[in-house]
Amino acid sequence: MSTATVMQEPGLSGTSRRPPVAFGLWLLKTLALWATIIVASAVAAKLVGHLPPSPRQDGPLTTMQSVFAANGGIALVLSLLASRLRVRWAEMALVLFVAFFCLSVGMMMIEALYFNDAVKMPMDELWAWGAVGVITAAVTGIAGALLFRPGDAPAAPVPANVFWRLVWLTLIYVVLYYTAGFFIAWQSAAVRAYYSTMNIPFLPTVGLQLFRGFLWALISLFIVTRMKGSLASRAFVVAGLFAVVTAIQLLYPNAMMPWDVRQMHLVEVGSSELVYGFLAVFVLLGGGARKPLSPTSPWRVIAGRA
After folding, report:
1. Cα–Cα distance, 26 to 20 (Å, whole number)
2. Residue 242 host element (H or E)
3. pTM score, whole prediction
4. What is the mean pLDDT of residues 113-118?
């Protein structure tokens, strides 16, 4: 589905204008969001400090090229998401913050903390990375809400039995995680050699991924129930969002993980998150009796009592 198609569907901001004008305005907003992310991340890095120096180029892009490419991809998918949100201004800022920070930093920090005995990343650098992510995502969320200026909208409907849908999504995440890991990443000799010296127990790692899978399901619920449009169109947007925001940062030169390993993880993570994001919309919203979403009591919604 093209960007022009997304911008022309009923219910999207700007549809009262002719399609070329609406697309042009959307593109300008996307470019503004792209510049905001770059500036915000640079300022945040200066304010926080404790980040390692940029390593030499070890992949197809220099550090500066990867900054423009990665943030451009993130701005693109966040703009597509912002165009589909049916929430008020403050809630749009929050949704964009969650989509940016949780997918690009928060969920990755959980794994980084768990595997840090093997990876041995300095803790001050790890927490600095998280702080920079919080600041950048907060500024981006506010800027996105200002740029796309949503109007009031009725509460989005969600199906009954949401808890069991979350359970299914948790299991789907774990299956996709290990399937992509084995059939894509682990087929690379460079990946096998990189992890051969790390003592990582299997069963506790499965428990970690079940926990992360449930968090992914909650994040999916938070995002997709605040979107408008058909299930298929929402699925395409969420699939792109999950794939790009989680994987594209592997383009950055990284002193701790060489490019021949990162490129396999980029394909692995990008493909598994693409499939997961697409399935998440249909698992959470497809079929079933619909109930109004109560944003003030999300746990009642999950428990099926909303």
Report:
1. 10
2. helix 231-247
3. 0.86
4. 82
